[in-house]
Design goal:
- The chain is of the alpha+beta class and 163 residues long.
- Helices cover 33% and strands 28% of the residues.
- Helix 1 runs antiparallel to helix 2.
- It is elongated and about 65 Å long.
- The two termini are 24 Å apart.
Length: 163
């Protein structure tokens, strides 16, 4: 069985992340306002609910910044996946397709420290066909290719097919 040829996919900042968080915060604020209007809550309960909402929104803003991959490239070298940051340093990753709708893939990437085998936390990326329409099929083949069992970062090929 042959693996997919080497490819890389440029990943940019996920611009919808902040908008989705803002939309959820707005919906929660409307629900809180509606609850206060319908119920006979005291001022203390309303203030406590508003403070809880404010803390939740603040935590979501802070935590969401690290959930999505930052600018860089997702690279398949024909044997294994790695994340190439903006400084062109390769970091081995495991990729997992969470949602495949044909023209877009929502993926999770979990980094792995090559020396200790320690796993880093999962980060997410939304990849769409419009970013690389001519090579989308090859990229999808690479996503579903199984990594070679003996693939090690020091034995990888350095040539990548730009798409």
């Amino acid at each position: 069985m042959h693996n997919a040829p080497p490819v890389f996919y440029p990943v940019g900042r996920f611009v919808w992340g902040l908008r989705l968080n803002g939309l959820l915060a707005l919906l929660a604020a409307v629900a809180l306002w509606a609850w206060q209007g319908v119920s006979e809550s005291s001022n203390t309960q309303s203030v406590a609910a508003a403070l809880c909402w404010l803390l939740s929104v603040s935590a979501a803003i802070v935590l969401a910044q690290g959930e999505f991959l930052h600018d860089g490239q997702l690279v398949w070298d024909g044997q294994a996946w790695c994340w190439q940051d903006s400084m062109h340093h390769d970091h081995p990753v495991d990729v997992q397709v969470l949602l495949d709708v044909g023209g877009a893939l929502f993926m999770a990437c979990q980094g792995c420290n090559g020396h200790s085998g320690e796993h880093r936390r999962r980060q997410f990326a939304l990849l769409v066909r419009s970013t690389m329409p001519l090579s989308w099929h090859g990229f999808r083949c690479a996503v579903y290719s199984r990594p070679m069992s003996d693939a090690r970062p020091e034995h990888r090929h350095t040539a990548h097919l730009e798409i």
